[in-house]
């Protein structure tokens, strides 16, 4: 892997396929099948610093290069549909507008923590779209898709994945959804 990660700060990224022990099991399985996985890296971090703001402050990685995965549950009657939504850390997912409509749901909300953890097989604070259940759409904001470098979760709190946006959108079920996210009010 010849990628130079300008967003790594003080992290020590290594090719993810050489350190699958640093990602959750469903993430490792998905990475093995991902076109472009040779352009993906992983870096070990202090699990207590996995939350985005603390992570960026400690490791010197730009907040604008961090992408968060939020699990959304959309309900219509007795049917619940889930989606993994990728937005930049500087933006907020439009759960009750764009995402709710895409899931054809009457009501949409962030999935409860215990539900998201159980369904993904990942740790809360480390959930990533890489390796979510195959029947979930992976909704990606255009800003994430266009990013040359991103830092995302690894499925565990003890590491982060570094991935180009064009590789992220190659995930099974990925679709770029215009207006998925809005800039956070300062």
Automatic annotation (TrEMBL):
GO molecular function annotations of the record: aminoacyl-tRNA deacylase activity
Residues covered by the YbaK/aminoacyl-tRNA synthetase-associated domain: 47-171
CDD domains: PA2301 (cd04939)
Family matches, as Pfam families: tRNA_edit
Protein's name in the database: Cys-tRNA(Pro) deacylase, prolyl-tRNA editing enzyme YbaK/EbsC
Organism in which the protein naturally occurs: Lentzea jiangxiensis
């Amino acid at each position: 892997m010849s990628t130079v990660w300008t967003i790594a700060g003080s992290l020590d990224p290594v090719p993810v396929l050489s350190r699958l022990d640093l990602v959750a099991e469903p993430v490792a399985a998905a990475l093995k099948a991902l076109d472009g996985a040779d352009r993906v890296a992983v870096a070990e971090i202090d699990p207590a610093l996995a939350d985005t703001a603390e992570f960026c402050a400690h490791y010197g990685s730009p907040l604008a290069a961090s992408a968060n995965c939020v699990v959304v549950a959309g309900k219509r009657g007795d049917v619940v549909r889930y989606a993994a939504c990728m937005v930049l850390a500087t933006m907020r997912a439009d759960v009750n507008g764009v995402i709710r409509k895409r899931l054809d749901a009457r009501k949409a909300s962030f999935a409860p923590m215990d539900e998201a953890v159980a369904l993904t097989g990942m740790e809360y604070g480390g959930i990533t779209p890489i390796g979510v259940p195959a029947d979930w759409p992976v909704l990606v904001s255009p800003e994430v898709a266009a990013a040359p470098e991103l830092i995302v979760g690894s499925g565990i709190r003890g590491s982060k994945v570094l991935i180009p946006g064009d590789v992220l959108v190659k995930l099974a079920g990925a679709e770029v959804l215009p207006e998925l996210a809005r800039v956070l009010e300062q």
